[in-house]
Design brief:
Elements (H helix, E strand, L loop, with lengths): L8 H22 L2 E9 L5 H5 L4 E7 L7 E2 L4 E4 L13 E7 L8 H11 E12 L4 H8 L2 H11 L15 H10 L3 E8 L9 H13 L11 E7 L20
Length: 251
């Protein structure tokens, strides 16, 4: 029997998801451009493409798991591609969003170089990603991939078995990599997440205690999720040319 105040994992996940979408909405709607381009890098279930389709000329989903290149509608496009070689032309994107994707990128420096290349001046990069320095993130980073897959099968309805590297999943690394390609941070929020092992009452209790502690001082940087927004300056000009790019769509 559920005690008063004892929320289920589903209830906590639903509340986090509502907050998650609201935070994306506040940024994306602010930068909407009916003549512009929105990209969801690692689009997966494509929910954000449809959510923002009316706010941009074109919404593009890029994911290596897509079969080929297909256009589902006049405004929503899908590209099967590698985020380390983004198949779009220079200075073409207004808003670039990643949602639980950065932890799967093997070469984040290369990815951010590509982000810097394809994004227009005054464009924004928006990311929601697990914090590799949180207790949950540290635990998952140290687990062997095979064991991580088993745990996800047990505790997640729709398990994502993409390899995880956590090579850009802390505030300082993320900042350095994006600063290097000319972006500056305009928003940073550390968010309490729902650790997927929290079906265990003991783990849930420990996690709840840590959430309370992490509201103080520098410990806030060890919360579960990093929500961040970076902007490309209006007068930014790249001093180096990118070599070896793949052919671009929408030329």
């Amino acid at each position: 029997m559920k005690r008063r105040g004892d929320k289920t994992v589903h209830e906590m996940s639903s509340a986090l998801w509502r907050k998650h979408v609201q935070m994306f909405d506040e940024i994306v709607k602010t930068h909407k451009n009916h003549e512009g381009v929105f990209v969801d890098g690692g689009c997966g279930s494509e929910q954000f493409l449809h959510r923002y389709a009316d706010d941009f000329r074109c919404c593009i989903g890029i994911d290596f798991r897509l079969d080929g290149y297909q256009r589902n509608s006049d405004k929503i496009c899908y590209i099967s591609g590698d985020l380390e070689y983004i198949p779009l032309k220079d200075n073409s994107v207004d808003v670039f969003l990643t949602n639980f994707v950065l932890e799967h990128i093997k070469k984040p420096e290369r990815f951010f170089e590509e982000v810097g290349r394809v994004m227009k001046p005054s464009s924004v990069f928006v990311s929601w990603t697990p914090n590799g320095h949180s207790p949950a993130g540290t635990f998952l980073r140290l687990l062997p991939v095979s064991l991580t897959r088993v745990l996800k099968r047990l505790y997640m309805k729709k398990a994502d078995f993409c390899p995880t590297y956590y090579r850009a999943n802390c505030v300082s690394k993320l900042g350095r990599m994006l600063n290097r390609v000319g972006f500056f941070r305009t928003n940073l929020q550390m968010v309490d997440g729902v650790f997927y092992l929290s079906k265990s009452r003991v783990v849930r209790w420990l996690h709840t205690m840590y959430v309370r502690i992490s509201n103080h001082g520098w410990l806030r940087y060890s919360k579960d999720i990093i929500f961040t927004v970076y902007e490309k300056p209006e007068n930014y000009r790249s001093s180096s040319s990118m070599c070896g790019r793949r052919p671009s769509h929408f030329q």
